[in-house]
Specification:
alpha/beta, 3 domains, two-stranded antiparallel ribbon, D-Maltodextrin-Binding Protein, domain 2, 7-stranded mixed beta sheet, about 50% helix, Arc Repressor Mutant, subunit A
Length: about 290
């Protein structure tokens, strides 16, 4: 298997452009074209329709894309396994959004290194939209998320429920005033949005909208403002008097889940690591 050909094909398929794929792969455009031509010759099928400004997958290309992604995933896993230290028995590839990593998963890696020294962790950062596809194509062993879909292919464990609280840079605000004082809206998913609108309606001024909790936190600390953030993320700032909780704002609770593919041969090895996730998350909420 020529991994470079596979990787180049996937990049061209994602960008729909030879030049953009070449830039992202640090290759010349002619090198990318040559690789695609060689791959098409080996497969005996045309993979792309070429036009002046972009390329698109043929029917054969669409069919091959899923196989290509699986082949690349298998290759990456193989490279990962052969590079394991002698004392390591297995690897757990874990994916989560930046907010969840910041809340408790870094502490979890520390605990795994102490309690399960034979396990090597590979930590990956994903957007909320890309987590599930990565889990379903076996790029991840476990995905940690707020909203876990009920799919037959998944084995889902609820780790704990995280309280989201309204915090502000100014002291003594009530919820109504806080919303008007520079509200930063964070996209915490549909379930959170529905609960928020139940309490505050849909007509409120928004200073900034972001999908990254850490961005909202840093802006509030640097220039002031108000946002709903997970309690574990802001607890230390509340204790230091750098942020203030809005006493009359409702606490919105969201469960955190660990999802894995059902029937995965590695699931038995994942159980103690996932239990450590539960302990670390519970500790971050209670402290």
């Amino acid at each position: 298997m020529d991994v470079d050909l596979i990787r180049t094909f996937i990049q061209v398929a994602k960008t729909s452009h030879f030049r953009k794929a070449a830039e992202q792969l640090y290759l010349t455009q002619s090198a990318v074209s040559a690789r695609i031509k060689l791959l098409e010759e080996r497969l005996g099928a045309k993979l792309f329709e070429r036009s002046k400004h972009q390329v698109s997958l043929t029917t054969a290309g669409v069919r091959f894309l899923a196989h290509a992604e699986q082949l690349l995933t298998a290759w990456n896993r193989a490279c990962q396994d052969v590079r394991l230290p002698e004392q390591a028995a297995s690897t757990i590839v874990t994916g989560a959004t930046d907010t969840i990593w910041n809340m408790f998963l870094t502490d979890w890696i520390i605990e795994v290194s102490k309690s399960l020294p034979e396990v090597m962790i590979r930590a990956e950062l994903y957007t909320s939209d890309s987590l599930m596809p990565a889990l379903l194509d076996s790029s991840l062993d476990v995905a940690v998320m707020f909203d876990a879909p009920a799919l037959p292919r998944l084995q889902i464990v609820e780790l704990a429920s995280v309280p989201f609280i309204m915090v502000a840079s100014a002291k003594g605000l009530n919820a109504a005033d806080a919303i008007l004082a520079g509200f930063i809206e964070v996209d915490w998913g549909q379930a959170f949005a529905a609960s928020f609108q139940q309490h505050f309606g849909s007509m409120y001024p928004v200073r900034l909208h972001t999908s990254v909790g850490k961005v909202a936190l840093e802006l509030i600390l640097k220039i002031g403002g108000v946002a709903y953030l997970p309690k574990p993320m802001v607890l230390s700032y509340l204790q230091q008097g750098m942020l203030y909780s809005i006493a009359d704002a409702p606490v919105i609770v969201r469960p955190v889940f660990a999802a894995q593919l059902a029937g995965n041969a590695q699931n038995a090895d994942l159980s103690p690591a996932i239990e450590l996730m539960r302990e670390c998350l519970t500790c971050s909420i209670e402290n």
